[in-house]
Write a structure and sequence with these properties.
heterodimer; A: about 675 residues; seven-stranded mixed sheet; 22 helices; about 15% strand; B: two-stranded antiparallel sheet; two-stranded antiparallel ribbon; 4 strands
Chain lengths: ~675, ~575
């Protein structure tokens, strides 16, 4: 089953669900969480009683139709705000559900201690249970392989069709529920309680009830509540002011002024924005453990990236053969191929591949000879070289310069100066030299180069403009690291990195007040993942790594961090811009409603009616209608997020202030006037 | 160009020209660097020895506030004692009586909070002893208090991660000895030279050309007028303040007093730039303040210099503008300029009758106090502006996609809560209290003891108004706005020396003095304690034109728009009706 990552904004089913929810959310106990909209609800209830009063003969409040309309528009304002939140929730849930569906009701084969197999439903699996999966089985729950190795199809989660290898021990031991075993058999221990997996946590995050507000959201809610209070004061004090000026003001007019002035636009969309942010993360195939993590991602100053897989494509590739004597190229290539014949590492394979493009007819390794069979020497940490002993007794070795030099000099031979120079030259160019020897005599050098991913420079450029410093982490020597760092355009690098180096780097950056993000998969990454402000664990990584980080990337894509940072920034920006828009709207609304309140008693105030609105009733209705309609009009923006442009903070502020500040100032003048042209026909 | 207008441009430019070096000097004083007034050191040491204060002791922001509130309480008790007993205390040649408790409360509070509302008249209401040892003393120390808390905030803004914000008493004492005192001496000498009295003798007598005997009040005026202008106090020696020919004898003295209104409020902004070594930030703040000031002063000067609408209808050209309530020796332009200068800075001294201002000018004067951060009171003006910066940083920080930061410190929920409380207080007090007064007036509520006439007969609410209708509403709005802004100027035309106005404005004064000091100091103190985050290209820069625009928008929407309905019923209704 493939997940639908790009569903439409207004999916019919989701919209229906959201409409239902909009009514459920009118419950004052739920509404209370949002102070701005709660006050609107109180106003709506008051308006309801005014309408009831008029039907029973109260004549002081104006016509029934006008009051009824105000009541309905206020109710609609509430419903629109609820709809925005409900739609965001529905979309988030739909995403999560499609993930969750993959793992529901899968039979699990529990391996009992007596060796028997018992079939259980995946829902009944407890932490610590061990189950068995064979080729063709769907893995019933998240867990860690304790025995065996298997190729697994993770496309259900990642959308990537190429199978991956997972095996017990090491950093690739984690399996995810819902993925399919393609070959072999594995024993897996369940690592999470039912209902406590990362996915369950994520689903809880998008569901309104258990959603925790993030720090910035709390601060913004306080700000909005403050504004609301200011306008409560403005509206309540207006009553004695009006009494003094002998201008009676109807309850409808009071409530209209109040609802228009308080920041209902941002108040109504605030929670939808937060949920949509999490939803965008999920859409990017990132599971976050808290909403705060997404927000923090927007603040990241330093990004730690592993070289391999992130900056460079997989592993190094052979790019050149340099024989000791130029004329001996063919023989040298032949030696290299033989030495790499059983080398299963990507580097080894790349040597054979390169050789095939250079020499037409390579001879296979002579299997039999006077000394018996060819004998392959595997790479060992001691010799740090590998190779082959040919049946004729020829010993071919390849390895790092130091190890071959060691080998050669032990036998009493010298390393030719040309070779030493070549090795230095290759290193300086960011390559990795592999030296090849035959019978303890150096016969040439193979150059391996890192292939830098296309487009990576542009991404680092983008990050730099966002104010994020990129740091490459690599096991390479400083010389090579520097070369690649420069070529890829990263700002800093950690060469010959050990796990504790990462940790120390993170700590020192944090001590200077910077926020650090990193990505990791191994158990030895876990402390650093925990230390980093945003730690993204790969889904293929060990359980320890996943527990330590605050996000899990289902795609195992190391460049995902860049997207996460942008999602975080978008989240904050959307809140900021809509707040600005909402508050800027007040100017026009003041000019629509305030003259309307007093014009009958003080006709001279017609001079303030700069929009030339038709009548007081029409002005008030137009302002309230505009105020209500702007909420659904902005739902797409709230859910998609304001586009982030890495143009530097000042330019970004200028841009957003122009669009949302100046726009927010002008649009309501036009909108209210247009609505008034229509409403003015009736009132 | 009109010489009157040239005159006020010159006054402004002179203020600006003097404010920059003064700012540099103030920054050096607070940074504890060498200045040419270091010879004051032994006197300061003497004060510390006598009071037993350890000047070296570092204080947290809470300790700063405790110290500030403690000495303020002592001054309040002293002021109450003097005002209620001045009748028998020495230096009372004119035999002025002791104050009633409610007037003493109002006067003590209003001088304590650097407002100087003055529900009494200087000539008949206070003795020389009270003028000098109570009122003038408070004019020095309350200005010093405002500057000292401002220095605390400067120190907090500079701190990377620190609790220690210097010693409050040192900031306070140096504000008095190094800044207020020497500047006041220079101005007082200048005024005395221009004809302002400085004497301990009682009323002078003169016989006019008509042969009438006239009693002329005098006293140690020059000294008090200097500090009332420099310390944004505004409490004049004489009842009509700087409109009085002895308080402000000539155009030249008017120039000097006008400059004195702006000198320290402007200099504080530049001092911030020098102190933090962030000159661009200071220019941004100064720019926003100046734009706000110009937006208020230009229409005011325009409407005051124009023939009032009512004369235009009658076909009369008054030539010199709206001259009612203005001093001919000063002219309409200089009077209009002063009206705005004194309201934006929370100074409150007046050289013209604000009740006679044109409706639009009345509104701009009100707006100056409603915003209360365009230059603002000495020290406290910057604190008010600081709150607006925090709010602007928060909204614009979000707009650039980062948790908002100001000078490397994160702005979080707690700071926003405090900032919002402070921002809320101003409309709450102004609108809430005006609503109360409007309610009492509209219903003509019997006021009982709260409002008695001279014969002790109880009057109804609203009887305190000389002008009913819109103008009366403006008078009440102005009185509470002036109190909440700690400004002290009055629209007048309001019978305000009675328990109702004395006590309600007194409460407004206290709340609106101390909460807007406690708030910003707390925010700055909390921020100082936070981890410093180095700036990157993603960090919002607060010293740019764009950010200045944002601060301006926040000020306009938060501070000004909340008062729009009230202004509509007051000056705007009057304007459109005339």
């Amino acid at each position: 089953m493939k997940r639908n990552l790009e569903n439409k904004l207004f999916d019919k089913k989701l919209v229906q669900m959201a409409i239902r929810q909009s009514f459920v959310k009118l419950n004052p106990r739920l509404m209370f969480r949002n102070p701005v909209m709660f006050t609107v609800e109180v106003g709506t209830v008051v308006m309801f009683f005014v309408v009831v009063g008029i039907t029973f003969g109260d004549t002081t409040q104006g016509s029934l139709v006008y009051n009824l309309l105000i009541f309905l528009i206020l109710l609609l304002t509430l419903l629109f705000a609820n709809f925005a939140e409900a739609l965001a929730e529905a979309r988030g849930k739909a995403q999560a559900d499609s993930l969750r569906k993959t793992r529901e009701e899968t039979p699990a084969k529990i391996a009992k201690s007596n060796g028997q197999i018992e079939i259980k439903s995946s829902a009944q699996l407890q932490k610590g249970d061990v189950f068995v999966c064979e080729a063709g089985d769907i893995i019933p729950a998240d867990g860690e392989i304790v025995e065996g190795l298997a190729s697994i199809d993770e496309s259900a989660i990642t959308g990537e069709s190429a199978p991956v290898i997972r095996e017990a021990g090491g950093d690739k031991s984690s399996v995810t529920g819902g993925t399919k075993v393609l070959s072999d058999q594995i024993k897996v221990i369940v690592t999470t309680q039912p209902g406590e997996s990362f996915l369950d946590k994520m689903i809880a995050l998008v569901e309104g009830a258990s959603r925790q507000k993030t720090p910035n959201e709390i601060a913004l809610t306080i700000l909005l509540a403050g504004f609301t209070l200011v306008f409560i004061i403005v509206c309540i004090t207006l009553k004695p002011f009006a009494d003094y000026a002998k201008t009676p003001i109807t309850i409808a007019a009071f409530l209209a002024l109040f609802v228009c002035l308080i920041p209902t636009t941002i108040g109504g969309l605030l929670s939808a924005i937060g949920i949509a942010g999490m939803d965008r993360a999920l859409r990017a195939n990132v599971i976050t453990k808290s909403g705060k993590a997404v927000e923090t991602a927007g603040d990241i100053d330093v990004l730690l990236l592993d070289k391999t897989g992130t900056i460079t494509i997989g592993n190094r590739k052979a790019t050149h053969f340099y024989p000791l004597q130029v004329a001996d190229l063919e023989a040298f290539v032949q030696q290299c191929v033989w030495a790499s014949a059983t080398d299963e590492t990507p580097e080894g394979k790349s040597i054979v591949e390169l050789a095939k493009t250079q020499i037409k007819n390579l001879s296979p390794i002579p299997r039999q000879g006077k000394n018996g069979e060819a004998r392959f020497v595997k790479f060992s940490a001691e010799t740090r070289s590998s190779g082959v002993d040919l049946p004729d007794g020829t010993r071919i070795r390849k390895g790092a310069f130091d190890s071959i030099k060691n080998l050669v000099e032990k036998a009493g031979n010298q390393v030719p100066i040309v070779i030493v120079d070549k090795v230095k030259q290759i290193s300086a160019n960011g390559g990795t030299p592999l030296v090849v020897s035959q019978n303890e005599q150096v016969c040439g050098v193979i150059e391996l180069q890192d292939i830098i991913k296309t487009g990576i420079q542009e991404r680092f450029d983008r990050l730099r403009k966002m104010g994020v410093k990129t740091v490459m982490v690599t096991g390479d020597n400083p010389l090579t690291a520097k070369y690649i760092a420069e070529k890829a355009g990263v700002d800093d690098f950690i060469a010959e990195a050990k796990p504790e180096d990462k940790m120390n780097y993170i700590r020192s950056e944090q001590a200077e007040g910077r926020l650090v993000a990193m990505m990791g998969d191994g158990t030895n990454d876990a402390p650093a993942l925990a230390q980093a402000d945003v730690g993204v664990a790969m889904n293929s990584g060990t359980q320890a790594a996943k527990e330590a980080g605050n996000m899990v990337d289902l795609d195992n894509d190391p460049t995902k961090l860049i997207e996460i940072v942008e999602i975080g920034k978008q989240l904050l920006m959307t809140r900021g811009t809509l707040t600005t828009f909402s508050i800027a709207n007040d100017v026009a609304k003041y000019f629509a409603i305030v003259p309307a309140l007093f014009i009958q008693a003080i006709p001279a105030l017609q001079g303030l009616n700069i929009m030339g609105l038709h009548s007081p009733e029409s002005a008030i209705l137009s302002a309230v209608i505009f105020n209500a309609l702007i909420i659904p009009a902005l739902i797409p923006l709230a859910l998609r997020g304001v586009a982030y442009k890495p143009i530097g903070a000042s330019a970004l502020l200028r841009r957003n202030l122009l669009i949302y500040g100046v726009g927010g100032l002008i649009i309501p003048f036009i909108g209210i006037k247009l609505i008034d042209l229509g409403v003015g026909l009736f009132f | 160009m009109n010489t009157e207008i040239l005159g006020i441009i010159l006054i402004y430019l002179l203020s600006l020209g003097l404010a920059i070096p003064t700012g540099y000097y103030i920054a050096r004083v607070y940074a504890g660097q060498k200045t040419w007034l270091d010879f004051m050191q032994p006197i300061e040491s003497l004060f510390f020895r006598l009071s037993g204060i350890n000047a070296q002791q570092a204080m947290t922001w809470e300790a700063h506030l405790r110290a500030m509130l403690t000495i303020n309480l002592l001054w309040f008790l002293w002021a109450m004692f003097v005002l209620m007993n001045q009748g028998w205390l020495p230096l009372n040649p004119d035999q002025n009586p002791s104050m009633s408790p409610d007037l003493a409360f109002n006067t003590a509070v209003s001088f304590l909070v650097n407002c100087n509302l003055q529900h009494y008249s200087g000539e008949t209401g206070v003795s020389y002893f009270a003028q000098v040892f109570c009122l003038m003393f408070l004019q020095f120390v309350t200005a010093g208090t405002g500057m000292a808390v401002c220095a605390t905030v400067f120190k907090a803004m500079q701190a990377r991660t620190a609790q220690d914000l210097g010693n409050f008493y040192v900031y306070f004492l140096k504000s008095c000895t190094r800044i207020l005192l020497p500047f006041s001496i220079v101005l007082a000498l200048f005024l005395a030279y221009n004809g302002t009295p400085m004497t301990w003798e009682g009323k002078a007598q003169l016989i006019s050309l008509e042969g009438d005997t006239i009693q002329v009040s005098r006293g140690p005026a020059a000294a008090m007028i200097a500090i009332k202008q420099l310390g944004t106090n505004g409490g004049g020696y004489f009842g009509v303040n700087s409109a009085h020919p002895l308080e402000n004898p000539s155009y030249l003295s008017n120039v000097a007093e006008s400059i004195a209104i702006f000198l320290i409020p402007m200099a504080i902004v530049f001092a911030l730039g020098f102190y933090l070594n962030r000159k661009r930030l200071a220019y941004m703040i100064f720019g926003v303040m100046t734009v706000g000031f110009l937006l208020l002063v230009i229409p005011t000067v325009y409407y005051e210099m124009q023939t009032p609408a009512i004369f235009q209808k009658m076909g009369i050209d008054t030539q010199s503008g709206a001259t009612e309530g203005k001093e001919v020796r000063l002219g309409t332009a200089a009077s209009a300029y002063w009206a705005i200068a004194t309201t934006v800075t929370s100074n409150g001294s007046v050289n013209t009758m604000h009740d006679s201002l044109m409706p639009i000018s009345g509104m701009t004067a009100l707006l100056g106090m409603m915003i209360n951060a365009l230059y603002g009171g000495v020290g406290v003006g910057f604190l008010n502006f600081y709150v607006f910066i925090i709010l602007a940083v928060f909204i614009s920080g979000l707009m650039v996609g980062r948790t908002p930061e100001f000078l490397g410190k994160k702005i979080e929920a707690r700071e926003i809560k405090i900032a919002m409380l402070v921002a809320l207080l101003h409309p709450l007090l102004i609108l809430g209290m005006t609503a109360l007064a409007a309610y009492l007036s509209a219903n003509q509520t019997p006021m009982g003891w709260w409002f008695l006439d001279a014969e002790g007969k109880s009057l109804a609410g609203g009887a305190w108004l000389n002008n009913p209708n819109f103008h009366g509403f403006s008078e009440m709005l102005y009185e509470y706005t002036s109190s909440a802004a700690n400004n002290g100027s009055g629209f007048e035309g309001l019978a305000d020396n009675n328990p109702f106005w004395n006590i309600t404005t007194g409460i407004v004064l206290l709340l609106s003095r101390y909460i807007p000091i406690i708030g910003p100091v707390a925010i700055a103190g909390i921020l100082a304690n936070k981890k410093y985050i180095p700036a990157s290209t993603g960090t919002l820069q607060t010293d740019t034109f764009t950010f200045g625009l944002m601060v301006f928008a926040v000020i306009f929407i938060v501070a000004a728009l909340a008062f729009f309905p009230a202004l509509t019923l007051g000056p705007l209704a009057e304007f459109f009706s005339s």
